[in-house]
Amino acid sequence: MNTKQKHTRLIKAEAKRLGFMSCGISKAEFLEEEAPRLEKWLSEERHGEMRYMENHFDKRLDPTKLVPDSKSVISLLLNYYPEKFQREDSYKISKYAYGRDYHFIIKDKLKSLLSFLQDEIGEIHGRAFVDSAPVLDKAWAAKSGLGWIGKNSNLLTKQVGSFYFIAELIVDLELEYDTPVTDHCGSCTACIDACPTNAIYEPYRVDGSKCISYFTIELKDELPGSYRDKFEDWMFGCDICQDVCPWNRFSKSHNEPLFDPHPKLLENDKKDWEEITRETFNEIFRKSAVKRTKYEGLKRNIRFLKD
After folding, report:
1. Per residue in 34-68, is it b (16+ CB within 10 Å) or e — as a string?
2. Is residue 182, in this structure, part of any structural domain at all?
3. Residue positions in the annotated binding site?
4. Structure confidence by residue, pLDDT tens digits, 102-149
5. Residue 19 and residue 112 in one domain
6. Contact indicator for 166, 107 with CB cutoff of 8 Å
7. Which domain holds residue 37?
8. Domain shared by 42 and 144, yes or no
9. Core-most of 141, 196, 219, 304, by most CB within 10 Å?
10. Has residue 252 been placed in a domain?
11. Catalytic residues (predicted)?
């Protein structure tokens, strides 16, 4: 076994031990296929008010500009599919936000992985990324063979669907690289047909400015009246295109206690949410990604659904 093989096996074994669902590795290089796609998406204003998407165009496409001398992008998946769900007569929260904010949990795991590699291999420089920098997570995960980009623009895997977080460790270490897998969406259009706001405007293309997740999380202004009957009770995020995807029949519940929801999140009905106080909001979402929309934002979303 050569050194690259040995290091690659070491990384994948440790990633598994840390609880990651899977780990794939690709060469750190310019993403040629993604460049024109991203440029077109931005020029067509598909990002709405997410102006940060316009920043660091070069860095989004070239990891060597983010991490000097980087050689490899280690992509990792962490399952968040819950065991229990909200009650039927409730306003809905995207499943990724049921428990504690994933940024902190995954960042800690990535730091542990990098520290382990430095102890085992020697002087390695690298950076961990969890949604927090201009990195095209899904493109790198697909490039490293962890799945394919589906028609809803999510990463899909035959074994487990799409309910998982994607993170990266970009390092200055040469490793063995994985190869992409084939697309298995076939003629299925379930996600396109189910999207109530027509955000999936053509297969594999999503207009971010029409997505329910964008409206309920990113948009800071009042919600547009023309979409009033289209949110299907989603008050934070949206899982519709994932819920209808046939590959998510294979989702298995996670085993990360920190992703378990506060009991009230599962127990609350619509009336409870409509009457939620700031104190209860802080109690339920103390360390949750829902904090991003703040109490006022969640109340705005609930009012919009109720009216």
Report:
1. beeebeebeeeebbbeeeebeeeeeebbebeebbe
2. no
3. 60, 131, 152, 155, 166, 185, 188, 191, 195, 211, 213, 220, 238-239, 241, 245
4. 999 999 999 999 999 999 999 999 999 887 666 788 999 999 999 999
5. yes
6. no
7. 3-171
8. yes
9. 141
10. no
11. 131
